[in-house]
Amino acid sequence: MSCTRTKNTLEIRIEETKKKLEEMVSIVSIWAEMVGDYCLLQHVKQLIFTPQGGRFPSECINENPGQIFLIYVLQNESTRLSMAYEALKSVQNIFKKDLSSTTWDLHQLNLFQNMIDRTVERLQFCVGEQLSGSSETKYANLKIYFEKLNGILEDKGHSRCAWEIVRMEVLRNLEYLSKFFGSSQR
């Protein structure tokens, strides 16, 4: 009985996590649309970045520091693209760290990383001249936010729980940024 219950719970957690990560892929696809990369958009729509660990692991609950807030203040199209570039570049850097403790599907993770890499490359092309040194001060909150996420990974030795915290935080803030982009384009 308990083995069946555990299996059902695990299946539910896998499905819930799959949905959350599909949302992350959807957010990346919005940014791909912004830079006009329709080929990338099609691949992102097919991508399912599915960790096998399910929802946020119960053994990690006590380790979760709570939401780490990041506030986006963007005035115009060039600022939005520049912010998207800086945010995705930081996501790119985080997801290139030691992921060996995660239970995520490595093939799907590699696809996700490739999508991020390509989107960062496209955004860099779009915002090229705007990046001349001023992004450090212009996006100080963004830099602090990703430093906190990197700190969580380092403090917890890139553990499974640390990666789950980072995944949840990145997803939460990418969703927020995506909503901001969507509302500002109407």
UniProtKB/TrEMBL annotation:
It holds the Pfam family Interferon. InterPro entries: 4_helix_cytokine-like_core (IPR009079), Interferon_alpha/beta/delta (IPR000471). One of its GO terms (cellular component) is extracellular space. The keyword Lyase does not apply. SMART domains: IFabd. GO terms for biological process: defense response to virus; immune response. Transmembrane segments: none annotated. It is found in: Secreted. Keywords: Antiviral defense, Cytokine, Disulfide bond, Secreted, Signal. GO terms for molecular function: cytokine activity; cytokine receptor binding. SUPFAM superfamilies: 4-helical cytokines. Belongs to the alpha/beta interferon family. This is Uncharacterized protein.
